[in-house]
Amino acid sequence: MTSEHFNPICTMKIIKQKDALVFRKQGKTLDVLAREYPMGNPDLNIAEVIIRGRYPEKGWAVNRVSTMMVYILSGTVRIAIKGKRPETLTVGDAVEIQAGEEYSLDPDGVVRLLPASTPAWTPEQHQTVE
Known about the structure:
This protein has about 130 residues and is mainly β. Helices cover about 0% and strands about 50% of the residues. The protein is built from no helices and eleven strands. The protein has strands at about 20-25, 30-35, 45-50, 60-65, 65-75, 75-80, 85-90, 95, 100-105, 110-120, 125-130. Strand 6 (about 75-80) and strand 7 (about 85-90) form a beta hairpin.
């Protein structure tokens, strides 16, 4: 590497899966396992989310502040955004869900997702609405 490409101010932060924050949400027909990777960046974060059953079980989910780009790692999921035609996504597909959009996810069996959010996702700004 030449010195013109080296930036000593930039630092790389690594979070191993064993250090991720694990959250679980279960309901009658829902099972969600999420691994959040706490990078400490208020502008961006990423997670791995595994969903079995419709999320949310009733109504719609909405992020009041964060916009999410969701990449499908495995499985198939039908995503509905209120006011738009539902779409079926599979491995390698991605969807952008804008802050304020009400959405639901209905996997065919189990789906594994990689959502990246900006600004960083927090549970306080996430809601379920009817």
